[in-house]
Design goal:
about 300 residues; globular; seven-stranded parallel beta sheet; two-stranded parallel sheet; alpha/beta; 15 strands
């Protein structure tokens, strides 16, 4: 297939491009910056003119739409970028999809499940009124509603995926990145960080995530939605302890706090649908993935 990955230089986008190429597809990428790859096209999805220019002269079979602003605190500090990229950007991609007819894989987030405290199945939103708890979560759910409307109004062929706490090599540190990225980086350099002890997650190693995601274009079912998550349900102190143990560092740099407001406390994920239809099968345990992530960071951030 001829495939486009928006946000193709990102944490998930870059390894996904590699995965799709390994399966024999012709893969093009776009992102915000200039880049040397001849199969790269620069585009800011916030601008419809640029999105239309992105598709000029190309006919893609499938588009993986990852281009987005990430994270709760990022969404508060830079909310205008978040809403413009995540919501308007998605609307622009949907507009061009209607004009060109390609299949679309839209990337949502586990944060759309908000304050739901049960097992997070894909059909929860159809049965329960969910309150999304921060701007990032709201933009992802608004975009999912845009996706569902496009499918109903125009027959657009779209699959939604909800990622659950993907981590691993390739995630460069900033204060707005994932909790595991923050733990690894700050413990590595001896900088203080917070651990919310009453929060639970099912973190998923990046290699396991992209292997599953790469199958969607081949097993594409319009209108479907998939949870893509891990199998180890853990509290956040447990993964922080793994980081500290690997670095042989004590926890004097950690501030333990019970919980953080306005974010999902517990993420109990049901991935049976992705397992059945996409071959989802996480193989990397936290006990391996965390050390691999730290060793990658050592190389990247070496003095």
């Amino acid at each position: 297939m001829k495939i486009l990955v928006t946000g193709g230089l990102g944490v998930v986008g870059l390894p996904l491009v590699i995965e799709l190429k390994s399966k024999g597809h012709e893969v093009w990428t776009c992102d915000l910056y200039q880049h040397h790859d001849p199969f790269y096209l620069r585009c800011d999805v916030r601008h419809l003119r640029q999105v239309r220019a992105l598709f000029a002269g190309h006919s893609f079979d499938c588009v993986y739409h990852l281009a987005a602003e990430f994270g709760r605190h990022n969404g508060e500090d830079y909310y205008e970028n978040l809403w413009a990229t995540n919501v308007v950007g998605t609307k622009n991609v949907l507009t061009v999809q209607r004009e060109q007819g390609f299949r679309l894989v839209f990337f949502s987030s586990s944060e759309v499940y908000g304050d739901y405290d049960g097992v997070m199945r894909e059909d929860v939103m159809e049965e329960v009124a969910i309150r999304q708890m921060n701007d990032y979560a709201m933009t992802k759910w608004v975009s999912e509603m845009q996706v569902m409307n496009a499918a109903e109004l125009f027959g657009s062929e779209i699959v939604r995926v909800r990622l659950f706490n993907v981590y691993g090599p390739g995630e460069y540190y900033s204060p707005y990145r994932s909790a595991l990225c923050v733990f690894c980086y700050r413990a590595l350099i001896g900088q203080k960080y917070k651990v919310y002890t009453d929060h639970h997650r099912t973190s998923l190693y990046i290699g396991d995530a992209v292997r599953t995601l790469g199958n969607i274009c081949e097993y594409f079912t319009p209108g479907e939605v998939y949870n893509i998550g891990g199998t180890e349900y853990h509290d956040m102190r447990a993964v922080s302890d793994m980081v500290l143990q690997h670095l042989e560092r004590d926890d004097d740099i950690v501030e333990y706090v019970e919980a953080e407001s306005m974010t999902t406390r517990d993420k109990k994920v049901d991935t049976a649908r992705a397992t059945r239809y996409l071959g989802h099968n996480p193989t990397v345990a936290l006990a391996d993935g965390i050390p691999w992530t730290i060793e990658w960071m050592k190389e990247v951030y070496a003095d």
